[in-house]
User: Fold Zn-dependent hydrolase from Clostridium zeae.
Amino acid sequence: MLTCNKERLDDKIKTFSKFGDTGKGGITRLSLSPAALEAREEFCKRCKALGMEIKTDDMANIYATIPGEEGLPAIMMGSHMDSVKQGGNYDGILGVLTGLEVAETIVTEKIEHKHPITVVVWTNEEGARFDPAMMSSGVITGKFDKDIMLASRDIDGITFKEALEASGYMGNIENRATAEKYKALVELHIEQGPVLEAEKKDIGIVEGVCGMVNYEFTFVGQADHAGTTPMKYRKDALFAASKVIQYLHDELDKLDSKLVYTTGRMNVSPNIHTIIPDNVKFTLDARHQDPEVVKQVVEIIKKVPGVVEKCEVSCKKLWARNTVKFYPEFVHYVEKNAKEYGYSSMKIYSGPGHDAQFITDIIPTTMIFVPSEKGHSHCEKEFTPLESCVKGTNVLLQTVLDIDKS
Ligand SMILES: [Zn+2]
Assistant:
């Protein structure tokens, strides 16, 4: 079977790890920052050397294409090059670099293909500098309002529009990915969780992206003196909140074992050690692939009483995402190819969000996961062994060639 080049892929990973290097094994490469622009420049330089044609759209998404037969839509691979603060060398960038390695293999080995083959770089996937995440894939698929996105500001007050214009990568709206121009998107990504490694699998056959809900609970009590108020007279909003967190854990643990849920944010007011808390807010993020389970989560949330420990309780939905299912034919190719290369694999749903989940609304899409060592991601410890990256690239290569023939 056809294979990509291990040394070349290693060189790509090592080269791009310099752009935004923190010196501690990771990178800080916020969207459209000087480090991100250096990475873009290197990417475009390498694509041009392969004879690829480079276009950018109005959100600075980059499309680098090997030509195919006239009039046929292109097959797209790729991901994002921006990172979170003190992030790792694999999240996003590995999807771009494996795409580039597939393109380089096709060009240098003169592998026949009918359709044009494109490597795409999505702008501002992380949302770490400009909120929200998956901004540009969201704009081109109509999820987000472009004008609102352009007004998004970083902590220095710079708007996304200003950063976009200064980047030199803002192109034409005509160049956006559309269903007419693209036949497929295959995004390779690290798993960002511990399952593939624990199950000793080389390849994650990604069937879709988990649905999720995110709720915020608010508890209103009475702020009083910690030294004078007898326990029986208190309205302690933090105590009420802790009771509800315990209730949620007890009830949610009765649902399917694949359900994951998190209270990641809590605000306690006034947050002074001598005052009984009178206002507490916390979030609950819950994710599962089956919409029915997500519905059961919401039913449990709705059963939280309006008054707990004499405190008023309210809750509101911050946001939600429906389960996304990827294109079955492409999912099948990934499964078949993993098997044909002799790699172990398993079907998996993505917990995190990816640009692919938005693009799938307009273009048939799937993803390939490779293992994350100890499940670490969004941190400097993020690591995927070169051998695993090579296996993922080979499956990506063959999947693109299968799509070309289909
Ligand atoms: Zn990512």
